[in-house]
Write a structure and sequence with these properties.
9 helices, four-stranded antiparallel sheet, Rossmann fold, six-stranded mixed sheet, binds adenosine-5'-triphosphate, 38% helix, alpha/beta, 2 domains
Length: 240
Amino acid sequence: MLEVASLVKEYRRTRAVDGLSFTINPGEIVGLLGPNGAGKTTAMRCIAGILRPTSGTVRIHGYDIVQDHAKAKARLAFVPEVPGLYELLTVWEHLRFIAMCFDKLEVFERRCDELLDRYHLSEKRNELVVTLSKGMKQKLAVACALVHDADVLLFDEPLIGIDPAGAHEVKQELMRARDDGAAVLVSTHLLDTAERLCNRVIIVARGRKLAEGTLASLREEHAMSEATLEEVFLSLTREP
Ligand code: ATP
């Protein structure tokens, strides 16, 4: 389970996340939606323990990401918008290295071929990461996130730059993780995909939550029966 309570993150002159609270239960995919600069990536980076929140708390499976960060991070997988990979490792070495970091070498030995195969990286197994295309790097980052069977998965714009087959596979993977009981948070600008993939969405703008719920509940709450998620989103995020 992921619990975010009153999360605030200020940069020097900007309050990028402004009192964000939400919970994601095991077995749910939740979409984090918002216009450019809404604070999605900042919130994700705070939840992943990369940025220290100005205030508020993040709990992963009950562990506080600041106070108990090792235990929290052991349960967490984060795929950033731009994956920071070790370019001078081979694809196989990279996956193995991530498995070692999470003390999951045994699982890795069993699952490596399956992961490489699923993401069409088998033929790149012994190539250096620096030689991969952008989409292949994104797929490798997703494969790395799946090595240690995390309880909470965070995906920041996971479908950008991936070809249709890869995007299909990533979506299948998110659904598999959900069906296996993970709590999944996905930030995306692809509202059609969010509508089909997510159990619920959270719409943010200027660091604040504007709305949260299923498409049906958002339609009802905002008196927009029959509206698509895109129509609800545009109506809520329209600047005055
Ligand atoms: P996008 O959809 O464009 O990726 P986002 O919703 O992910 O946007 P963030 O990247 O979290 O938004 O940015 C939120 C706000 O914080 C923006 O006003 C941005 O300019 C600001 N910001 C982000 N990173 C920094 C930083 N390192 N230093 C100062 N301000 C930052």
